[in-house]
Design a protein that fits this description.
With about 525 residues, the chain is mostly helical. It is built from 18 helices and no strands. Keywords: Membrane, Transmembrane, Transmembrane helix.
Length: about 525
């Protein structure tokens, strides 16, 4: 342990200095930089593909009518909210656990191969030492006829290359089982509770929006098992540092959704139900592709239930569940407070919020890369790589945030008319733009910190720190929204993200928890 701690602290005089480590080489495509790029770029594209497909989905539904569009919007919000609570803990825990187990498995296999190699070399040396005399050797040399015969016999055999052995990753099997169970539970919950859930969201039974909203939500819920399963498998692939396979599957599924939407909606005249059916089919297509690819890499049949380590999964998953609820509640409360200000304020807030959240997907790509690489490095106790990886992704996060701030500050000012033509809404969007743009570096840091802490399997700290942040943020939201209205909400959200980034900084910056080696 001590031998591995020394190298990582040679250039790190204090934990805080990790943020400035090799800062001049931030864009250098060395081995680590290339690995981050290989993981982050496909991950970001895969995360972006779904929202793009949803926008296309919404556009098609908009051709049916505004009532259907509004109804589907509420149904999607309900479905996404239910999915997010289950998805985020499952994917995050799976990525870290799979990366750890895969690294440990590879290390043990390498050690075993080294032992076999040493044993073979020892046997070869022993044979050379015990070789018979020349006369004895000559007597053992076969005649020409027998040599030819043996050569013919040897040539009659075909050389068969052994197939690569499948990996044995307990967390992969556990993730799939948990994902399937959660998916079935979610589907049953949403189908049975569609009417009361939609009523809670403001759609009264018997209203014009009621039937299309219920139809869409119930049909869309049939795809919940596929959604949970596919995301669990994405977590497995991320643990293997393979984000290209999930990208391929996601793009294939989303393209199928876009193609099937007009067919089911307009050719078969199924309307809103057709949109839901198309989406469900696309989700199952994604699951099939990922499952097929995963079967080629991993032995998914566990020898026993103990092998799956459900307790470890559920314990850490519960911690992240607490965290997700805290995060979701803050954003939902902000939207609720904006809605109380009036439809104009809510429309402007919704546009700004969607842009604000959508840009986080790019930072999530860096977070995924950091998590996967760090989980492997911690499993190997390679603290030098831990330090280098954390430094690199955090520095890249700041750069990404600055680029997004500049892009949104200019682009959203001129592009706001894409979302609405209402003068009052545009005025409020213009007020929100400085907050949306200026907070991008903070947002990116916060999301990358999440990946860093998850990579260190510091789930308990992530949960409790987020819970603390949420408590303070809720107080700020309530006070500032009542005092300053629309602007107050954005000020409170800025404070919320700042506290979130500060909480992420807490572990590395103080050199505590998994990062205590920075102080040694």
């Amino acid at each position: 342990m001590a031998e591995k701690e020394v190298p990582c602290t040679e250039n790190v005089k204090s934990p805080v200095s990790i943020f400035f480590r090799d800062i001049r080489s931030i864009f250098k495509l060395d081995e680590l930089g290339q690995e981050i790029a290989r993981i982050a770029l496909p991950a970001a594209l895969a995360l972006t593909a779904d929202p793009v497909a949803s926008l296309v989905d919404t556009a098609f539904i908009g051709h049916i009518g505004p009532i259907e569009q509004a109804a589907v919007g509420v149904s999607i919000a309900v479905f996404n909210q239910a999915s997010k609570i289950a998805i985020f803990p499952l994917v995050s825990v799976t990525t870290s656990f799979v990366a750890e187990e895969d690294t440990i498995t590879k290390a043990s296999q390498d050690l075993q191969n080294d032992k076999i190699k040493e044993q073979n070399e020892g046997d070869a040396e022993a044979m050379d030492t015990d070789s018979p005399s020349n006369s004895e050797s000559k007597s053992l040399i076969p005649k020409n006829g027998s040599v030819c015969k043996s050569e013919k016999m040897a040539s009659s055999f075909e050389v068969v290359k052994p197939k690569p052995e499948k990996r044995h990753i307990p967390s992969a099997s556990a993730a799939l089982i948990i994902g399937a169970v959660l998916g079935i539970i979610q589907a049953a919950f949403l189908i049975a509770g569609a009417k009361p859930l939609l009523k809670f969201m403001g759609i009264k039974p018997g209203s014009a929006m009621s039937k299309p909203a219920e139809d869409y939500l119930r049909l869309r819920s049939l795809g919940a098992p596929a959604v949970l399963l596919s995301l669990a498998m994405q977590g497995v692939f991320r643990g293997f540092k393979d984000t290209k396979t999930p990208l391929f599957a996601t793009v294939a599924g989303d393209l199928a959704n876009i193609i099937l939407d007009p067919i089911f909606m307009f050719v078969f005249h199924l309307g809103v139900r057709g949109a839901a059916i198309a989406h469900v089919i696309s989700q199952y297509l994604i699951s099939v592709i990922l499952f097929w690819r995963l079967m080629e890499k991993v032995d998914l049949v566990p020898p026993s239930l103990k092998y799956l380590q459900f307790a470890r999964f559920l314990t850490n998953g519960f911690l992240l569940l607490v965290r997700v609820i805290a995060v979701t509640f803050c954003v939902t409360l902000a939207a609720s407070l904006a809605a109380r200000l009036g439809p104009t304020q809510m429309a402007a807030f919704q546009v700004c919020l969607q842009v604000w959240l959508a840009t986080s997907l790019l930072a999530d790509g860096l977070a995924v890369a950091g998590q996967a690489i760090l989980a492997s490095a911690f499993a190997q106790e390679d603290f030098s790589r831990c330090t280098a990886t954390a430094s690199k992704v955090l520095q890249l996060g700041v750069v990404l945030g600055l680029v997004l701030a500049l892009t949104l500050g200019v682009g959203l000012h001129y592009g706001a008319r894409v979302f609405t033509q209402d003068v009052d809404v545009l005025h409020l969007i213009a007020i929100g733009i400085p907050f949306v743009a200026a907070t991008q570096p903070i947002n990116c840091l916060a999301f990358v910190f999440d990946g860093v802490n998850f990579g260190a399997s510091d789930f308990a700290y992530s949960a409790y720190s987020m819970l603390t942040v949420a408590i303070f943020s809720i107080v700020f939201l309530l006070i500032l929204s009542s005092s300053f209205g629309y602007i107050g909400i954005w000020v409170a959200l800025t404070i919320y993200m700042s506290l979130r980034a500060l909480a992420g900084f807490g572990r590395i910056g103080t050199g505590t928890g998994p990062w205590k080696f920075l102080r040694s």
